[in-house]
Specification:
- By secondary structure, this protein is an alpha/beta fold.
- The protein has 2 domains: 13-180, 3-Layer(aba) Sandwich (Rossmann fold); 182-317, Hypothetical Protein Tm841, Chain: A,domain 3 (2-Layer Sandwich).
- The protein has helices at residues 13-24, 85-95, 109-121, 150-163, 168-178, 229-244, 264-280, 311-318; strands at residues 29-32, 37-40, 49-56, 73-79, 101-106, 126-131, 182-188, 208-211, 222-225, 251-258, 284-291, 301-308, 321-322, 327-328.
- The protein has a 6-stranded mixed β-sheet, with helices on both faces. Strands 9-8-7-12-10-11 form a 6-stranded mixed β-sheet, with helices on one face.
- Helix 3 links the parallel strand 5 (101-106) and strand 6.
- Helix 2 (85-95) crosses helix 3 (109-121).
- The protein is globular.
- It starts with 12 loop residues before the first helix and ends with a strand.
């Protein structure tokens, strides 16, 4: 079967996409080339610069979260491929304004290695927060868990604190505080198709799903048969709640994230089921988010993320943000 995508060519896909993104959101971002990164157009001096990045194909992560209240810059690699150290270095050199740079990194070997290299080569003060919120494969890897939708929570919370003037040490401590309070897990009903490959990453039968799928199409816990949404949500929620062990009456942020090709109506079905699980357990649904935020190209699937809130996390989550993908407050 011929791959059908809106592209000019596989070779220019990322370049063309970034150029279009920058044109669509010229009030918020600037596109830099040779090497490639995007930066916040209206920078705020005297604050820690927050820079993230990773392989493309997960939009709006990370480029869609550049702007006041979140990221100052993002380094996009080729589709599902880590950006290179020179991208992070140039972004850091451009955006650092005297308070240092905080790199926010999803826990994938290529991302970790290249951001570490950039950190070591940098002549500006910097630190790194590693995101590893995926509980699909507990204890299965010596490298830790995958970083997925929890990355958006980290970027939002730390972005708010940085906007208020928090220093590097404070941001690192806030990242450590968030880490054990977040958990995510996803399920896919179709694969994604990487343009350079021209075919689906994996094949599922008509009645099959991948439980615990990664955002690059990596295998999850197991293949299973498609079941009613309530049953799937219960399995995902059980895994998240087992990880977090919330106290009775705990306040929760619940996110249902689409992976690119799942209709919003279906995401709301999943959210409704997840909110009922929380209600039955006496947990307080205080904040919510539904939509496509950490995608996997054209994969039909969804993930659920829980974050246990406290007063400081909730305050930072509620703080004003103005990006192409998240926008609230004054």
């Amino acid at each position: 079967m011929t791959m059908k995508k809106f592209i000019n060519s596989v070779d220019t896909f990322l370049e063309d996409s970034l150029r279009g993104f920058a044109a669509a959101h010229a009030d918020l971002v600037e596109l830099h080339t040779a090497p490639t990164f995007l930066s916040r157009r209206h920078r705020k001096s005297g604050k820690v610069a927050l820079i993230s990045g990773g392989g493309s194909g997960h939009e709006p992560l990370h480029i869609g979260f550049i702007g006041p209240g979140m990221l100052d810059g993002a380094c996009p690699g080729q589709v599902f491929t880590s950006p290179t150290p020179d991208q992070m270095l140039r972004a850091g050199e451009t955006l650092e304004c005297g308070a240092g740079v905080l790199f926010i990194v999803k826990n994938y070997s290529g991302d970790v290695m290249n951001f570490e290299m950039a950190s070591e080569l940098a002549d500006f003060e910097n630190a790194t927060v590693l995101v590893e919120d995926d509980v699909a494969l507990p204890g299965s890897s010596s490298t830790g868990r995958r970083g997925v939708m929890g990355t958006v929570i980290v970027e939002k919370v730390l972005g708010a604190l940085a906007e208020e003037g928090a220093d590097l040490g404070t941001l690192l401590e806030a990242g450590r505080h968030l880490h054990p309070r977040m958990a995510s897990m996803g399920v896919a009903i179709t694969s994604c198709t990487v343009p350079a490959a021209g075919r689906p990453t994996f094949v599922l039968a008509e009645n099959e799903i991948e439980v615990g799928v990664g955002i690059h199409g990596e295998p999850g816990r197991r293949r299973d048969v498609l079941r009613p949404a309530a049953e799937l949500v219960q399995e995902l929620m059980d895994a998240l709640l087992e990880e977090l062990s919330p106290a009775p009456g705990a306040e929760v942020l619940l996110i249902v994230n689409g992976m690119g090709a799942t209709p919003l109506a279906e995401l709301y079905v999943l959210f409704g089921e997840a909110s009922q699980v929380l209600e039955r357990l006496g947990l307080r649904l205080e904040r919510s988010l539904v939509g496509n935020y950490t995608t996997a190209l054209d994969m039909a699937g969804a993930s659920i993320t829980l974050c246990l809130l406290d007063a400081e996390i909730k305050r930072a989550w509620d703080a004003p943000v103005h990006t192409s993908a998240l926008r609230w407050g004054r």
